Structure to design on (652 residues):
């Protein structure tokens, strides 16, 4: 019998299952992985250093580009850290809008994850289904901020503007009939909240569709059950957070345990796994989408009943409206100062953590009293997860590496920063 | 106020470690301690293992360079007859080849989380005067420190004694320097381009000039001073 020697294989950075620019150096014996050495940093842009050279508000847009499938959650972490240092009060309506968009972002992220994870291990249809629902949520992003992805919608003190009264509609085109157009626009006749409410009504049955395709699917289970099992002790030791930690059976969710924004007003459950394998993490994330849907629904109901300001009134931090600016000298001065110099944040340090779709996203901010941060450190959940890659794939087959990349929900924007 | 979990923790820490730890005042209710670098490993082990603390998770490790802490680029506390220029004068570059650093220049900041007690704790360790700066690694206490320490090494050049695999992580293969140090220019030192004559990618010194769009200013703001806080609240 021929002797099998171990050899080294290069995986990525140009590989469709590498979720961006992951380069993995794998030591393989036969088809069994002995060691994996991820090389990251191919997308390193120095976000933290760039943020040190800009006034606080100008870096909000960079946060969208960290984890580019859960944009508003990143912004939330950053503005929360600034608000902690400034000690500014955020109006209740803004808190609810933030919660609603955080949860829509969670669904956006989990849909992207489910589609890509499915595609990676052989379920092509998932990708198409998931992107169908993502489209509706991206339209909400567009309606509220003008862009489909990089919203820059949150501000220290609240959110940039109130929810719009109408949803953008599909235009006439020679490629679709009048009847088809009316059907597509039928849910977009009312306000944005009507559209979101309609979405929350349809979405549970969409999740049912995904589950019919995967949950009891023999191939899906063969690819995920008992793959990359992580015990709760190891998960904590390795710094896992979010669904990766809950999949191992640790009931830990910052939305419940250290609530921020309006999460203490919300009624929802934390799903946890039992075995800590890829299948359990899949189940946890799918259930999280259902819970997010519940939270969005509660926010929609609250926001309908309670109009009010969506950003703090303090004009040392928040620019006055343009109407005020046109006939009030003081407002003009505030406006000018804010857009040329920004605001100075009192000396100190703060760490703000939020329950990002991927885990704990934290922003550690040091201010020395200037109009720019002295140090911004972004704690990306994916960074800790990817560092455990070697331990998770050891002893598995080459094909399981792809399943592990999928289950870690890796996005390079946040890992490389 | 013993009901506040972080105050309870602070009392326990001070009872257990006494003057080995030094509490840093915080305006937003976060618990921070400065720890001597020689005592750090012992304290970290105790914080993880002892039931009073139970910090089973190390959330984050990050390097900080305090070189220009509290310095601004633009005078704001006096008036002139001619007005201020928006131009910024560059500060001289301090070379890393110095034999010794200021004692409070480099620090490593650790964020700990206790899931069983639901509290957070921040520890700061200054690296002392040595060049290169060095602290003891905590990888054997919390495995999650592995990549975070590699990152701090890559970006700040802080060495972690006892780290199993201290390589660069975020910067390019063959990168020179530690880009997040405050004396490393924001546009870097080299630029790359494709040289068609040589048929490969070549490195050259940067050709772009640094410029500052918004100068860094520190303004005295009475709204945040403790004695004036309640008397004047108009913003």
């Amino acid at each position: 019998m021929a002797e099998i020697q171990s050899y080294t294989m290069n995986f990525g950075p140009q590989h469709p299952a590498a979720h961006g620019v992951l380069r993995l150096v794998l030591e393989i014996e036969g088809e069994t992985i002995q060691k994996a050495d991820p090389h990251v940093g191919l997308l390193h842009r120095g976000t933290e250093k760039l943020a040190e050279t800009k006034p606080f508000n100008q870096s909000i847009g960079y946060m969208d580009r960290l984890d580019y499938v859960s944009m508003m959650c990143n912004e939330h972490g950053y503005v929360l850290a600034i608000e902690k240092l400034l000690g500014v009060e955020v109006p209740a309506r803004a808190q609810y809008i933030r919660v609603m968009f955080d949860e829509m972002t969670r669904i956006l992220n989990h849909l992207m994850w489910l589609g890509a994870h499915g595609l990676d291990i052989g379920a092509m249809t998932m990708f198409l289904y998931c992107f169908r629902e993502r489209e509706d949520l991206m339209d909400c992003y567009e309606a509220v901020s003008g862009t489909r992805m990089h919203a820059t919608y949150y501000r220290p003190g609240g959110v940039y503007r109130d929810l719009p009264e109408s949803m953008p509609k599909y235009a006439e085109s020679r490629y679709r009939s009048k009847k088809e157009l009316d059907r597509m626009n039928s849910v977009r006749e009312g306000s944005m909240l009507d559209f979101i409410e309609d979405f929350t009504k349809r979405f549970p049955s969409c999740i049912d569709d995904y589950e019919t395709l995967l949950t009891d699917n023999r191939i899906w289970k063969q690819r995920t059950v008992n793959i990359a099992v992580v015990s709760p002790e190891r998960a904590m030791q390795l710094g896992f957070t979010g669904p990766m930690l809950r999949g191992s059976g640790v009931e830990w969710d910052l939305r419940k345990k250290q609530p921020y924004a309006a999460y203490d007003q919300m009624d929802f459950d934390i799903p946890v796994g039992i075995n800590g394998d890829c299948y359990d993490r899949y189940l946890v994330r799918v259930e999280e989408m259902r819970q997010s849907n519940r939270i969005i629904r509660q926010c929609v109901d609250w926001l309908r009943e309670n109009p009010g300001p969506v950003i703090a009134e303090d004009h040392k931090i928040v620019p006055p409206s343009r109407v005020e600016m046109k006939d009030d000298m003081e407002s003009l001065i505030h406006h000018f100062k804010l857009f040329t110099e920004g605001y100075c944040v009192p000396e100190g340090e703060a760490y703000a953590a939020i329950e990002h779709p991927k885990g704990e996203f934290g922003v550690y901010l040091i201010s020395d009293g200037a109009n720019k941060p002295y140090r911004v450190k972004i704690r990306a959940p994916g960074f800790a997860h990817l560092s455990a890659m070697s331990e998770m794939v050891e002893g598995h087959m080459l094909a399981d590496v792809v399943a592990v990349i999928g289950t870690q929900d890796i996005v390079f924007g946040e890992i490389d920063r | 106020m013993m009901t506040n979990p972080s105050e309870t923790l602070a009392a326990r820490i001070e009872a257990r470690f006494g003057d080995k730890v030094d509490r840093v005042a915080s305006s937003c209710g976060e618990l921070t301690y400065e720890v001597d670098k020689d005592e750090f490993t012992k304290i970290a082990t105790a914080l993880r293992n002892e039931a009073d603390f139970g910090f089973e998770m190390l959330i984050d490790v990050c390097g900080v360079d305090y070189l220009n802490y509290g310095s601004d680029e633009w005078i704001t506390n006096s008036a002139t007859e001619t007005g201020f220029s928006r131009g910024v004068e560059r500060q001289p570059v301090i070379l890393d080849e110095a034999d010794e650093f200021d004692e409070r220049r480099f620090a490593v900041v650790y964020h700990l989380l206790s899931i069983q007690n639901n509290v957070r704790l921040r520890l700061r360790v200054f690296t002392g005067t040595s060049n290169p700066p060095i602290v003891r690694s905590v990888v054997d206490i919390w495995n999650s420190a592995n990549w975070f320490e590699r990152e701090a090494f890559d970006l700040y050049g802080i060495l972690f004694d006892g780290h199993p695999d201290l390589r660069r992580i975020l910067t390019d293969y063959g990168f020179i320097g530690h880009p997040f140090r405050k004396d490393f220019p924001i546009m870097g030192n080299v630029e790359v381009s494709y040289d068609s004559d040589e048929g490969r990618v070549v490195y050259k010194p940067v050709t772009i000039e640094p410029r500052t769009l918004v100068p860094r200013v520190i303004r005295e703001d009475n709204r945040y001073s403790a004695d004036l806080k309640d008397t004047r609240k108009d913003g």
Observations:
- Chain A touches chain B through 57 residues (CB under 8 Å).
- The first strand of chain A starts at residue 6 and ends at 11.
- The mean pLDDT of chain A is 90.
